Amino acid sequence: MNRREFLFGAPAGLAVAQAKPQRPNIVLILADDLGFSDLGCYGSEIPTPNIDRLAKGGVRFTQFYNAARCCPTRASLLTGLYPHQAGIGHMGRNIGTAEYQGFLNGQCVTLGEAMREAGYTTLLCGKWHVGASRPHWPVDRGFDESYALLGGTSNYFQPRSLVRNESQVTPPREGYYITGDWTRRACAMLDRHAKAPRPFFLYLAYTAPHFPIQAPEEDIRRYRGHYNRDWEGLRRARYQKMRKLGIADASWRLSAPPAEVPAWESAANKEEWDLRMSVYAAMVDRLDQGVGQVVAKLEELGALSNTLLLFLSDNGACAESKAQGKPGAAIGSADSHTTYEPPWANVSNTPFRYFKHWTHEGGIATPLIAHWPGRIAAGRIAREPGHVIDILPTLLEVSGGHYPAGRLALEGRSLLPELRGSGARTAGRTLFWEHEGNRAVRKGAWKLVAGFGREWELYDLSRDRSETVNLASRQPARVKELAAEYDAWARRAGVLDWKPEWEKQHGIPY
Q1: Residue 160 pLDDT grade (very low, low, confident, very high; cuts 50, 70, 90)
Q2: Domain boundaries of the chain, sorted by first residue
Q3: Closest Cα to residue 114, out of 148, 84, 89, 77?
C-alpha cells in the first residue's frame, strides 16, 4: 500500500480511483492533569469504557511525552515547537523575553491555522491557556469556531473567562457542570459541520480532572467507600494490571513513594481521603462519558469511520496541596477549592516518580490513544518514543497540508510510522524538557534529568523506565555528553535560568 492509499484508502475500482480522495476528519481530545495510569486501558480501576473502546480499536502509546505542565504542553501541542520557541517558556504572564511572553508568538503556526490552510473547518472547545487577551484568542489563531476557557484552573460549577468566538459567555447558575458543557458544545459543533463538504478538525480540551476537585454529588456517591484503602496497595494493583495489559514490562519497576506520602496505616482522616479520591474518580468518569458522547455523535453523523481521533493528557498527575474556597464547604462541591493531594497523585502516576511540574517520568509521561478505523491496526501497543511536538506534523501529513515557509522550523515529526507499526523514523531521537528549572534530555534510551537546583541523574530507560537506579556516578562521560546537548538546546530555545520569585512577581496563573 502506498502513502496515498494508506491515508485515504485504496481504490476499489476505476470509478473510485478517479474520484477525489476523501481526507479524514480529525478529533484531538486533551485531558487535563490526568495521570499515566488513570484510564482502565492503562491500568486504572476507575471505569473508562468509552476511552477503553477507542484503545481496543486503535493504538496505545507507552512512551509518549508532554511538556510537564498545562501551558507549555498546549504551546507545543498547538505548534510543533518546544514551548519556549512558541513564546510560553513558563506560563501565562510575560517574564520579559520573547520566549517567556506568555502567549503564542507570530513565528509559530498553530494547528488551527495549519488545518484551516489545509482546507479544514477548524473547531475548538475547551481550555485554551495560551493567550488571555486579544489578539491571542482561538479566533485570532486559526479557529473558525471556538468555545473556550481562556485561563487555567476554573470552578467546574461556576467558571469564569469563558468566550464564544469573540464574545464573553456567562453560564447558568443552576444545573451547570463544565465537563458536560464541553461535551454538549463539541457535539453541537459536530452537528453543524460533520456533513459539510469540507473535513473538520475539532480540538476538544477538557479541564477534567484538573483541580479544584469538584463533581456532581450523584457521581461522587458511586465511588464513596472504594478508596478507603491503602494507596500503596492500589498502586501495586494498578502496576500488576499494567503488566497484564502489556503497557508495562519487567523493566518498569514500581518506584518507591516520595517522602510526602505517608503509610496508609498512619494517615489521619481516612474518610476524607476516601472522599478526595472519590471526587477525582467521578471527574474521570464524567470525562469518559463525554468522550463516549462525542464518539456516539460521530457515529450518528456517519463520520466516525473517516475520523482520526487522538486522546492524551497534558501532563502527569498533580501533587499540589490546596485548601481554598469557603470554610467548611464539602469537598467536591462548588464552594470548595481543593486537591486530591500527593498520595493519590502518586497512585495516578503509577509506576513513575514525581508529578506535574517535574521532568521525571511522572511529570512528562502521558497516555496517548490513536483511533482510525481501517487505517491503523486495532489493539496495537506502540513502544516508540513520541512527544506532543509530533502532533502538528502528524496532522499535516494526514491532512495533506503543508507547513509554511518563513516560520520557525518544526521540532516534531510525524507519528504515522508508529501508527502503522514501523517506528524506525523515531529510533534514537533526542528530546528536551525544561520547566521551572526542572530539566531533562532523552537520547535513545538514555535520559538525563534533574530537579530545580539539583544534580543531574542518569537512567537507562530500556532497563529502568521508572528511574529507580541513578547511573550518573558510574557513567560521567555520558552525563557530560548529554548535559552538553541539553545546554546547546537550551541556548537555542531561549531557556532562562529559573528564578522562583518570578511566580510571585508576575502573578502566574495555573
Answers
A1: confident
A2: 22-421
A3: 77
